[in-house]
């Protein structure tokens, strides 16, 4: 068991996130990168736009990561033993591209209530200040959800370009991770990330999110997998774990899941972004 220590749990409660947590070896992280690049080569466009979501439904390698016992032990320390995998997202910043993530709170548009859930961010490549790692505004999760301006900036990797304005950058902390390391963050913490100024890709695989079985989707429908314990509330549709890469049935399930997710992300919005 690699549950979080009491010190780590207290730090999470105080700061709103905990990092780094050692999960995978560098070789295991590299296997994930190779899977991404294989899909990009053999199934072009499959990981673009909405396709960056729910990759764990079409790839056994990503599925295995989502059900990794070390990650689940840490998550259990925060949300309890009834754990559902609710969704996953790839955040890829290629060198020379202008991709960034504006400061935002995950809980703002995602419709998961109550907030008994946690986002896990796995570094597939090293994440540092040069290549645009996340920055966390410690303690901001203790306040109410903030106003988000919807900018729809074409380089913003978020759906609506949702932005919390006037975040004091000097009060934010970089989350520096080696490939294979993980961070866990609270639904309400304000966080974002800047440009990749390095010569290599910066890749993050995000389980967004692990939810407790008591968490409902108040804006729409989601497809979940049982990671641990039991689904005591049965709010969501359960789907099977994939046994092969890009199986036609799994692709069809993923397409439905992404269509429903898009409705959630753009609920109440007059405009649709590319994600």
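^ Assign residues to that structure.
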């Amino acid at each position: 068991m690699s549950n979080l220590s009491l010190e780590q749990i207290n730090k999470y409660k105080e700061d709103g996130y905990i990092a780094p947590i050692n999960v995978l070896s560098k070789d295991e992280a590299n296997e994930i990168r190779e899977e991404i690049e294989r899909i990009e080569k053999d199934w072009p466009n499959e990981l673009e736009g909405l396709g960056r979501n729910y990759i764990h439904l079409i790839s056994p390698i990503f599925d295995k990561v989502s059900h990794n016992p070390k990650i689940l032990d840490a998550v259990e320390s925060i949300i309890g033993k009834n754990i559902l995998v609710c969704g996953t997202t790839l955040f890829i910043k290629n060198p020379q591209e202008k991709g960034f993530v504006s400061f935002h709170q995950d809980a703002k548009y995602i419709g998961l209530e109550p907030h008994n859930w946690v986002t896990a961010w796995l570094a597939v490549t090293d994440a540092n200040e040069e290549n645009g790692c996340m920055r966390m505004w410690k303690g901001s999760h203790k306040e109410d959800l903030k106003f988000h301006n919807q900018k729809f900036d074409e380089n913003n990797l978020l759906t609506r370009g949702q932005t919390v304005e006037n975040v004091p950058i000097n009060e934010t902390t970089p989350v520096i991770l080696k490939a294979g390391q993980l961070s866990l963050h609270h639904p309400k913490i304000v966080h974002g990330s800047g440009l990749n100024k390095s010569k290599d890709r910066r890749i993050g695989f995000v389980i967004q999110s692990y939810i407790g079985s008591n968490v409902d989707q108040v804006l729409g429908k989601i497809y979940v997998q049982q990671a641990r314990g039991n689904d005591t509330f049965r709010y969501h549709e359960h789907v099977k774990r994939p046994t092969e890469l890009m199986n036609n049935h799994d692709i069809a399930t993923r397409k439905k899941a992404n269509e429903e997710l898009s409705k959630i992300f753009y609920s109440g919005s007059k405009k649709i972004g590319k994600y």
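Residues 122 and 149 are 27 Å apart (CA to CA).
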